[in-house]
Amino acid sequence: MQPTQKFEEDVAFVREAVEKRDRRQYNSIAIVLLWAIILTAGYIVNDFRPQVSHLYWPIAASVGFLISIWIGVRAKWAEGIAKRSDRTKHVLHWGSLFFTTYAVAFIALRHGLDGWVMGQFMTLIVGVTWYLGGLYLDRRFLLPGVVSIVSAPAVDYLAPYPWTMAGLAIAASLIISALWMKPHEKSTI
After folding, report:
1. How many CB atoms lie within 10 A of CB 118?
2. What's the Cα-to-Cα distance from 60 to each of 29, 63, 68, rounded to whole Å?
3. Fewest beta carbons less than 10 Å away: which of 60, 153, 172, 187?
């Protein structure tokens, strides 16, 4: 075998491995749909029942986080890719979002920030975390990250239901991104 032919075979093998990895990465959209529902419902609560917002968000975020871990692990096992390092990286990244939002809530409550401003900070933190997750873990979170970052200050200018409009935009960006970037293969939900 000549060196040129061996090199071409090696490059073809690497290209195929990367394409297979990219296809696998986007097979399950269940987590995206879960969070689209949680966020839409929560932002609607912010507009129409703000007095229960402080109950909805901690409960929904905690349950959503645990369900997301369960769905993610299950999907990776079904695909036959259950590398501990990948699992740890995802849990640490998304766990940082979970714990950061609780820290922000504690600081905001301690200093008397109202729910509106706290919601804007949470939306901003979620957006930044999604965007960074999109850069380093799963490209599906780039667009929702940007939409969430933009939505944080935009709620001051949207009317008549600013949180609902922001929530719908963020949920739509999650779903669009998940479907747009998903391969044309059979989906595993």
Report:
1. 19
2. 19, 5, 12
3. 153
The pTM (predicted TM-score) of the whole model is: 0.78
Domain residues of the chain, as ranges?
3-180
Kindly state the tokens that stand for 122: 């949470």
In total, the chain counts a number of residues equal to 189
- Nearest Cα residue to 105 out of 62, 169, 142, 159: 62
HEC-encoded secondary structure of 146-159: HHHHHHHHHCCCCC
Distance from C-alpha of 172 to C-alpha of 178, rounded to nearest angstrom: 10
DSSP 112: T
Q: Which has more confidence, 126 or 14? A: 126
pLDDT digits (tens, 9 = 90+) for 83-126: 666 778 888 898 898 889 889 989 998 999 999 999 999 999 99
